[in-house]
Amino acid sequence: MGDLQVTTDEPETKLLYSTAETAALLSISTKTLREFVRAGEIVYVPLGRGQSKPRLGFHIDDINDFVRGRRTRECPPASTQMVRTASISKSPVYDILALREQRNAEKQKKKGKA
User: Fold this and answer.
1) Where is each Helix-turn-helix domain found (predicted)?
2) pLDDT digits (tens, 9 = 90+) for 48-57
3) What long-range pairs does 69-72 form, CB within 8 A, spacing at least 24?
4) Which of 4, 47, 57, 93 is packed most tightly, with the most Cβ within 10 A?
5) How much is the pLDDT for 107?
6) pTM of the model
7) Could you report the per-residue pLDDT of 1-20, keeping only the tens digit for each?
8) CA atoms of 60 and 65, how far apart (whole Å)
C-alpha cells in the first residue's frame, strides 16, 4: 500500500507576514505601514534586534483587526428639502417694506405742509 496524501484547495497559511507582504495585503506602501506601527494602530511581532529598521512580523488576525478598526461608512447627505414648521408666537409680525412706505409718505406730507 502507498502513502496517503491529503491535498486541499486552500493555500498554506503563514504564521507571520513580513512588512512587505502585509503592506501588499493592505495595498499600502511599507513606509505607510511603518507609520501605522509608530502610531500604534496595528499590532506587530518584533522579529529581530535591529535598532534603525527592526524586522516586524504581522499576524493575519492583527491585520484583520486593523482593517476592521479602520472601516468607515459615509453618512448620507441631509435632505435637501427643509421642513417648515409653524411657530405659534404672540409677537406681532411687521412688514418692513410697508413700514418704510408709511414713513416716507408721512415725510412727504410734512414737507408739503411746511
Assistant:
1) 16-70
2) 877 777 789 9
3) 69/41, 70/41
4) 57
5) 87
6) 0.53
7) 444 443 444 456 789 999 99
8) 9
Can you tell me the distance from the alpha carbon of 40 to that of 34, in angstroms, rounded to the nearest whole number? 10
Query: From the centroid of its chain, how far is CA 14?
Result: 31
Angle at 86 between CA 83 and CA 92, to 5 degrees: 140
Helix H or strand E encompassing 107: helix 96-113
Grid cell for residue 24: 501588499
| 95, 70 contact by CB (below 8 A) | no
End-to-end CA distance of the chain: 131
Nine-digit cell string for 11 = 493555500
**Residues ≥6 apart with Cβ < 8 Å to 25:** 17, 63
